[in-house]
Batch of 2 targets.
Target 1
Amino acid sequence: MIEIVHLADARAIGAAAAERGAAAIRAALAAHGEATIVVATGASQFDTLAHLVKAEGIDWSKVTAFHLDEYVGLAVSHPASFRKYLAERFVAPLGGAVAFVPVEGDAGDPQAEAERLGRLIAGRRIDVCFAGIGENCHLAFNDPPADFDTEEPFIVVALDEACRRQQLGEGWFPNLEAVPTRAISMSIRQIMKSRLIVLSVPDRRKAEAVRAAVEGPIDPAWPASILQRHDQAVLLLDPPAASLLSSR
């Protein structure tokens, strides 16, 4: 079941997402002495990360952070690199205290990189996963039709045109041809292993995907619909993103 929270705008979404996630991190640190989280990128995460790095009561030296995905073949110096995004907006503001595990998208062998990450995350308790939902309803870079069955924690995926056009529309690339066609992504089943999933979803362009994820059938054609099976998935929406829901 998905918990839906209606908020005023992207700023309010970011503050609420960070608050929910920070509470889960503090609880894990209190109970286990360490925490493992998954952080996301993209326009929906700007405010979330800005608030998260300022959260009080977290010893970041005891936190390990994985991230959801990265383009295959993209150098960390590229403006659209997710490693660059997180280094600037998450790792640097924390003074490097957090143990960050990057997806090396420009590794010579993407499949070997996916397997390396799989070994690192295997058996870990994931206390909170921060994420968003794509315009095509993707979860991480699991574009439709998503693989709901693979047990591999990280997989090499092909990006569909709708996903690539979203990246272009958000200003990450100069033209569609420049958007990579493949990525290394955390798999659906690995994401679903997270104890808490906090999703920040602002903007009218996400409204159809939100409706499909919340009110449609669970279907690989709408990857985020799998969240209906999660015990603690929190969906934070602004009015435009929630505009097509039958119950607002």
Note: The chain has seven helices and ten strands.
Target 2
Amino acid sequence: MSDEKGAHDGSAPVPGVEIFDDLAPVPVAPVPVPTVTPRAEDPSTPEPAHPVVRAFAFLLDGAATFVLTVVAVFASLNASYGFAFVLILLVPAVSAVVATVLTALFGFTPAKALLGLRVVDAETGGRPGWRSILRSLLIVAPLLLDLALAWTVGATFSSDLGLAVFVLLPPVVWAAMLAVLATRRRDRYRGVQDLAARSVVVSVR
């Protein structure tokens, strides 16, 4: 009776169980835990350009176009009045085309390159490509609207109110676009033009 009790309470080895003592433990591979790096903390992801810097780049490009236009007009003073008027329209148009081509191929305009800004595809980070045409059209849309108004109701611009509308329309629209852009911080400050072209402006410095 005592032997049977000792066999069951662990005081004596149970025959046949000792073969399990030499078995090696089965290795268990650790389960990898994926690490998600937030976009803002990923050093490989450029930071979105601040709206103030973007506005400054826009003003620099606009100022350069204005200076070129003035120089072209003064250089053509000896020509006819009509030729000078054509230059007032032609120089900004050429400037817009050049800016569009540069943005499509390299992702920057002269002012953006100077300030270390790039326009890239919002998903891949590559060049925006020819979607930059739509982007540029939206940027120059206030000027196109101005020209359309001047062409259709040009007589009204002879008044002070009409002249004020003609002069103030583009900067007011651009300021509104900048205000909308500045409120979209969670969407990397993407404005209407960026959403249409599926692009984002980043700082590479």
Note: Helices lie at 2-8, 51-75, 81-106, 110-115, 132-139, 141-152, 160-182, 192-197.
